[in-house]
């Protein structure tokens, strides 16, 4: 759920990826995590992110015959907790920018073109159209300020079964995006994940719905989940970059949201596009490019980015705003790529 470089990767990265895929052991893509992840079986059950780093010709992303989102995609958002108006605007404008046709190059819609390359077993491509659907505000923390992976599904159930303005049920092209505010604690948040995607259990929600959760890390771990706009205290000498929209937590969320939407589109039921032989270790198209935002990226280096006149750092343009969004893996050229790649 939350990761890459170009074809000219250093040899040691290629070797690292080979070891990963042969052993199917989970490793960490470059984020400044305070400790390594464990409990992979738990992650499989409730939908954990898989952190891999590095790209090479040895990575074999395969299609496992499951469905992908070829119908128009509608993102239904649940705003859990207290959100400022401008924070919502930043995230809405990013989602609206995915299908925008007139954005300045390099654009968010150009980034999505790599996702569109993926197909289902009939040869149909991922939909080009991604738009905002209905939204639900849960400002009174209906399920408390501490959520588990399982209780998140109860939050979604509350949203789709609400007596007033329930979120529509759209199992074909609907994605359900649960966003938690900066004062909400979530199981494994900050120590192991910044977000993840999975699907709801019919026994809880009544339907199988692809969903993702992403948290605002501004108060809890900006140095991890809002990196590189914040850096942890235990990495001295590393200077944070200026965020493009003036909100470190939300600007950090945007890249994680992009990561999850790309993987939901290509692997909504965890049986479509992923690398590795075992679905308990699904290395997905964004996992392979964790921490890669520009040409030359790899390890702790984000790659070549743009600096605006205001000093903010970004790598692609939306309708009205700029964003820093990680790249995704292209199975056509077999490496991570994005609209700001210097070889395009």
From TrEMBL:
Identify the main location.
secreted
Residue stretches spanning the membrane = none
- Subcellular location, in the record's words? Secreted, Extracellular space, Apoplast
Q: Which InterPro entries match?
A: EXORDIUM-like
Instruction: Extract the signal peptide range.
Output: 1-29
What protein am I looking at?
A: Protein EXORDIUM-like 3
Q: Which GO terms describe its cellular component?
A: apoplast
